[in-house]
Design a protein that fits this description.
heterodimer; A: 201 residues; B: 158 residues; mainly alpha; globular
């Protein structure tokens, strides 16, 4: 008996099952994906929602805050978030297009991993430029509140850089920690899958 | 493609999904999850199916890609075994010939296992290359080595 005949016996005895029912298929295609790429895509979508949330907060503050200096800083932050929102959505769309299981999956996984790694790194670096602006806006907002005139004294002007120097690395560390917490586990699995496919082929 | 056409095609080719799942997975929880995931991924990707291959070839590729990118609980068992392990890990002498072949194929890594089972299911080397993402030549070389090892194992019992 050759391999083919033996395989036919295996296929008949062990692998032939009743066809999947119509209701099972309909339930499956309307369910949520449990795949790794889908999980990562959802994480990016959550980031997108958070950006919209903060954009709305900044927009409301721009209208409510009476101090021009703070207003200008908030407008800068709002504009940065608008750009961030557009870039995050672009990333999300890219991930949707790459997530095609009928295509070359190894290349798709490599693209996914490298794009997402770059995206998260860029986000962290852009944050480094935005934290000082946020800190300055917050600092002046707190300072001007309850004062009759929006004038800054020398002591406060010296305190501001110190606050920026302390808060910026802290925020950067927090952003990195949040990205690690949200993405690292899945990114490691993605890398493992890529290595597995590279080893086997 | 309309949903009803898709459902009919999946029903017609559901043997492919059964086969991929039973060959690549051992854990019953994984199997249950993967049935649903493969059908979900197939439905999501079917808009990109351009009819330049058979639907069965495309579905095999979707099923395999879904299995390969799924975080299997027992994945480690399947990652490192190449054809060389067939010779060092004997299969019981008392096993039936088809059991021996089935176990031997299950011990192969995911790509080798796919190549040989597709070949035994009469897919040609170009179709196997399309499904696995390998070149046609690479498929031919790998297939020759795998078949030789499997035949040797079946004839000598280990």
């Amino acid at each position: 008996m050759d391999l083919k005949e033996t395989w036919e016996r295996i296929a008949h005895d062990k692998l032939e099952k009743a066809p999947i029912s119509q209701s099972e298929i309909e339930k499956a295609i309307t369910s949520e994906s449990i795949g790794l790429m889908s999980k990562l895509r959802k994480k990016i979508l959550h980031k997108f929602y958070w950006i919209i949330f903060f954009m709305l907060i900044f927009a409301v503050m721009i209208f409510l805050v009476p101090y021009p200096l703070v207003k200008v800083l908030l407008v800068v932050l709002w504009a940065a978030y608008v750009i961030g929102m557009a870039l995050t959505f672009k990333e999300y769309r890219f991930m949707q297009q790459e997530d095609d299981m009928g295509a070359d999956i190894k290349q798709a996984l490599v693209n996914y991993h490298s794009r997402l790694t770059k995206f998260l790194k860029h986000e962290e670096y852009v944050g480094l430029a935005l934290y000082p602006i946020s800190v300055t806006a917050g600092f002046f907002l707190g300072y001007f509140e309850g004062k009759e005139e929006a004038i800054v004294d020398t002591k406060s002007l010296i305190a501001l850089p110190i606050v920026i120097l302390v808060v910026t690395p802290l925020c950067h560390w927090l952003a990195k920690w949040m990205n690690r917490y949200g993405f690292k586990k899945h990114m490691d699995k993605l890398k493992e899958n890529i290595e597995l496919l590279q080893d086997q082929s | 493609m309309q949903q009803k056409d898709f459902v009919a095609l999946i029903q017609m080719h559901s043997g492919i999904i059964h086969k991929v799942i039973h060959l690549h997975l051992d854990d019953s929880d994984d199997k249950k999850d993967l049935y649903q995931e493969i059908m979900y991924q197939a439905w999501k990707s079917v808009k990109n199916f351009r009819h330049d291959s058979r639907f069965s070839t495309w579905l095999y590729r979707v099923s395999l890609n879904t299995v390969l990118t799924y975080n299997r609980k027992s994945k480690k068992l399947n990652t490192s075994n190449g054809i060389e392990n067939l010779e060092v890990a004997p299969i019981s002498e008392n096993s039936d010939r088809s059991d021996k072949l089935f176990l031997a194929i299950k011990r192969l890594n995911d790509i080798d296992k796919t190549i040989v089972t597709l070949h035994l299911d009469d897919y040609d080397n170009q179709e196997i290359a399309d499904i696995t993402g390998l070149t046609k030549n690479n498929v031919a070389v790998k297939l020759h080595r795998i078949k030789e090892s499997l035949t040797k194992m079946l004839n000598h019992g280990s």
